[in-house]
Amino acid sequence: MHGLDLRALEIFRAVAIEGSVTKAAIKLNRVQSNISTRIKQLERHLDKSLFLRQNRGLTLTPDGQLLLSYTHRLLQLSMEASEALRKGKPHGIFRIGTMESTAAARLPEILSRYHELYPDVQIDLDTDTAGGLMERLLNYDIEIAFVAEPVSFDRVNTLPIFEERLILIAPKSFPPLANTREISGKTIVAFEAGCAYRRYLEEWLLESGIVPGSVMAVSSYLAMFACVAAGAGFAVVPQSVLDIVSTKGQFQQYSLPDNVSHIKTMLAWRSDYKSAKLDALKELLPVS
Within this chain, do residues 184 and 243 fall inside the same structural domain, yes or no? Predict the structure, then answer.
């Protein structure tokens, strides 16, 4: 039996993670027919069925799950070998996952400097909730992630990078909040479940005996600010994001207790991941 083609394994991993040939084709910028053909060729090569084809998408067979575990390791070793032969000079695609707040307020200058120093690296920056980022990191879909603490996974290393201060914002139309308990019954404007800052907000509300009304889920800080400014409800946002957005006079702003307002942003990477790209990035990051 001939060895496995690494490009075929990259395609296999994309389909396994996405659960769909269509989504994998979009992710890899390939036509669907090419993805399907490469998967069928791989199955014939191994004489194994790798996927169960169901109405809602593709799921891995036991043989597919076994191959995926080897695929992660083989692709990782391939990248490490390539970098070692280039004397450790960073190059290739660097898949970085980050919370939207970090992408907007903390990373632009750092990544601009990184690109200036290492032009052979193509940065692929994706935003998601902290929960979504950790899932993608463990699935080998991204190489590193910037997420809010706490991070407690056996296979993940972390480094504290930034410290964020969370601020409660409320519409100008609300009466002045002499006591934050006055927001009881009001709508929360927040990201989807999985957002670390939303989790801190909900814990603070519970500890403070504040019973909010409904939750209005949004997908961006721009939408969040617009909803709060329009009087839809209140939200919690990092001070660093407020500092880069023109929001003066649009909201009431209130500090939260120290135990829930000061949150560290962690750089997280899998313990089996080694890369000159990561080492170079660490040199440019502040350590909180």
Answer: yes
Residue type, 24: A
CATH of residue 240's domain is: 3.40.190.10
In a domain, 46, yes or no: yes
CA–CA distance, 243 with 162 (Å, rounded to integer): 15
Give alpha helix (H) positions in 86-144: 100-105, 108-117, 130-138
For residues 8 and 73, what is the distance between their CA atoms, to the nearest angstrom?
14
pTM of this prediction exceeds 0.70: yes
pLDDT in tens, 128-168: 999 999 998 988 889 999 999 988 888 899 999 999 999 99
Identity (one letter) of the amino acid at 80? E
What is the residue whose two structure tokens read 């750089």?
Answer: 267
**What's the burial of 133, exposed, middle or buried (CB within 10 Å: 0-12/13-18/19+)?**
buried
Q: Which domain holds residue 180?
A: 163-262
Domain-embedded: residue 84: no
What is d(CA 242, CA 105) in angstroms, rounded to the nearest whole number?
9
